[in-house]
Amino acid sequence: MTRLIRAELIKLRTTNMWWIFLICSVAFVGLALLINTAQADSELSTPDYLNEPPPPGLSDDDKAQYLANQQHEKDSIAQAHTGVGLARIAANVYTSGQFFGLMMVMLMAILLITNEFYHQTATATFLATPKRTKVIVAKLITGAAMAFMFWLLATVINLIVGAIFFSAEGVGNSLGHWDAQQAILLNLLVYALWAVFGIGIGVLLRSQIGATITAAVVYTIGTYAALIVLALIREYLIKEDWVLQAAVYIPPLASEHVVGSLQGQMGDTHLPARWVGVVVLVGWAVVLGGIGTLITRKRDIA
């Protein structure tokens, strides 16, 4: 197994695409950091208009409503400065770039398996190692190692920039708070699981171009199309919260839910606990990894 993993790492390292995906991942992390720190700044800062008196000419009821709205926003800002509130904001900052980072990991994992078919090395690989399950396990371990590299680079960037940002804001960085630590660690698990997804997809769709394009389109367009469909169903057909809560069963959205960033997209909808997202992702990984292993063991490679 050690030799198999070493061989897979050599294949991965000699693939010219890995550093392109890594650069893209870093670029997406930078873009996400700009957005998330701007959002964090708006949550932590008190706008000047909240300290202004009601405009002249308002009725007593309108003045009372104006002041109530001001107080509500001030309460929200005060909540953001609490330990839990800061940890929630910090978790979002420290996991910046997750959405596209996971896509990069998935596509790299797809290439890890489809390259064998594209370059017609699969036959030699399975002749050298007749027990195909060992080959798939080695690819899964290699994919997880590659995912760790992507996660580590993104997390280091996020931690450095995030710590500087929170220091400039004059608040704690929440690195000692479990909610922030949990989000960072769960993000590592999510990255590893998406490597498993990629290998499973690569086995199901052996065409390198077909697998990468299909996976990228379904991951990006399909994810938010599904979210829009759920919102329309909730608005016009089934006016129940469980319709929107079903979003956690969609793998990319489950990944966001695991680190706590999905709630901001769902408004006031009460989402299930984070562990539900973990269970969903593990379930998908087991299904795709299991199907991929079974197909590889039975399929004619030559």
What does this entry look like structurally?
By secondary structure, the chain is mainly alpha-helical. It has one domain. 78% of the residues lie in helices and 0% in strands. The chain is built from 13 helices and no strands. It has helices at residues 2-13, 17-44, 60-80, 83-94, 98-118, 122-128, 132-169, 178-204, 208-236, 241-245, 251-258, 263-266, 274-298. The longest helix is centred in the middle third of the chain and has 38 residues, at 132-169. The chain is elongated, with a radius of gyration of 23 Å. The two termini are 23 Å apart. The model has no long low-confidence stretch (mean pLDDT 86).
Total domain count: 1
Radius of gyration: 23 Å
Question: Cα distance, first to last residue?
Answer: 23 Å
Structure annotation, total helices = 13
Number of strands: 0
> Roughly how much helix do the residues carry, as a percent range?
over 70%
Report the biggest beta sheet as strand number plus sense, adding barrel if it closes: none
Mean pLDDT: 86
Order of helices and strands: HHHHHHHHHHHHH
Unreliable spans are: none
Strand content bin: under 5%
**Morphology:** elongated
Structural class: mainly alpha
Question: Any chance you could write out the topology, listing elements then pairs?
Answer:
Blueprint: H1 2-13, H2 17-44, H3 60-80, H4 83-94, H5 98-118, H6 122-128, H7 132-169, H8 178-204, H9 208-236, H10 241-245, H11 251-258, H12 263-266, H13 274-298
